[in-house]
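Message: Just now I want nothing more than another pair of eyes on a protein record. I am handing you a single protein, as its sequence and its fold in token form. As I understand it, each token names a local backbone shape. Take your time, and here it is.
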Amino acid sequence: MVDTQKFAKNLPENPGDSALQPGAVLQGRYRITGVIGVGGMGSVYQARDLRFPNVTRHVAVKEMLNLTSDQSMREMTLRTFERESDMLASLNHPAVPEIYDYFSNRDRAYLVMEYINGRDLEAIINSVADYVPTDTVLQWTIELCDVLGYLHQHQPEPIIFRDVKPSNIMIDQHGRMRLVDFGIAKTFQVGQKGTMIGTEGYCAPEQYRGEASPASDVYGIGATIHHILTRRDPRLEPPFSFAERPIREVNPGVSPEFDAAVMKALAFESGERYANAAEMKDALDELNKPQYPGLNIQRPPASPEADTGEWGQVEENSRELWRFQCEDEVRSSPLVYQGVLYVGAYDNNLYAVNIKDGTFRWKYPSEAAIGSSPAIAQSESLVLFGSTDQLLYAVDIRVGQLSWTVPTQGPVQSSPAVAHGHAFFGSDDGTLYAVRLATGRIQWRWAGGVPIRSRPLVTEEIIVTGSDSGDVVGIDLSGQMSWRFKAKRAVVSSPVEHDGIVLFGSMDWHIYALDIMRGWKVWAYRTGKPIVSSPAVGDGKVFIGSTDGKLYAIDIASGKERWHYETEGQITSSPVFAEDAVYFGGIDGKVYSLDAKNGRLRWTHETGGPVPSSPAIHDGIVYIGSMDHYVYALRA
């Protein structure tokens, strides 16, 4: 039973006037930490479950305001919300959020459910400058058909989602699809009519007549995928005009077979579509080949060692000295300090490995994947790293034990920078943090309002960092903004400084050079596609990779291209300059070494998976991770 007195003291005096404020506690258990979204019928909050005092466990709390004075309408609204709760509680599918709790009081009802840490497809579409790779979209479509097929085959009655659209589909921190907002889903009964519900542009023709069936959700799948593949929002187009906007005329990279499957899903008459999502999934499975989701490449061939079951062994005359196996993908960049290599992995662990022979020293587990790269705080004997569990960790490098953590309100995908006795890092909560190394206490915060994922550049006078809005800002050491530069797309590239110029890449396809003290543009160079890679400087040039598959060398003084080298896939790895050579990884599964003066290939080494990790160079050895789960030590 609800403790109404304890519950009521956490609510606003006028429920319709305001959302719950951070710090409010519901049921003595759920402390509100932020607002995820606000709608006409209530809000969705992020909250911390206080029953787990030793770990930060976040939940999503969906609120329904019930402010009508009509008693019968109030009861109907509450029954609708209870129906959603009961429906979710009856489902068991990896793409459906788990429900934990339900309670109501006065003018509000609350549903406590799994917190999905990620971004919806609409945000993803709007954050990229080019088309999403076709094989990624195909994989998303298959996953979407899988969960909707599960709903369509639900017993005792099928469930029709009725509002399939990009903003109701999330990709979580592990790259998995999650279906959210079941507010208008309903059980299907043949011949039953109801109110027209759905979103214009994505809604099937029959839904305008109050009719819905599994084929109506298939239409929503088709409209969603058409939007992603063409980047044309159906809400801005004439209704039911998809046939007038062929996919391959806009995006010729889409195969005729995939095009045909999407267009069949968009047939005006429901009987001409796939009968349900499971039938559509069966058709798409025939098109799918083993690929790495999201990378637009075929899986590279396995190495000879893999075929013999001796993956860990290395030929005597190989460039490879040793390899160390993690339990999942390695996307983080390694760091070498005092004979030890530190690297994070998607298995949630930070590893410490002896660089002499690749033997294990210790590992420290976080609560979620580690994509950020570590930093060393030498004065405190700490290694620092961020995790998508929303924490920055400081671990004692001598014993591998935790010294302190800093909690944020979003995944920490920014790599920390250490300077002036502080650690500086960004979070997906839109904040840049300055933390005292000695205590782990936050010295100051700078609110950027959007995710900050680049590693901050810290000099003697200024801090420079980029953000998902495209803003690059200069902040003084007290946390006050000095200047702001606006790129056209997100900046996840980490800036570097050379002779008073700050250099970085952007998702708007450009490499920028700015005056570091004023933020004025010195020059910009356009590549062929968005830039995720961070720059390296050497020999009077800036080196940076692009998702167009090229490694560029640009003259720092003039901004003119000196040379470029083309690989067989995207380059998201950040290059390193050492001894007149440039080293980097490729999504084609190779590690590259180029002559820095002319861009000629020195050597390549093939791994068993894409290489988004950036190399560390130490004493003539290249250390780099791969999505094949291994960290490699290679002769430079």
Confidence is low (pLDDT under 50) at residues 1-17, 184-196, 289-317. The longest strand covers residues 30-39. The longest helix spans residues 71-89. DSSP finds nine helices and 43 strands in the chain.
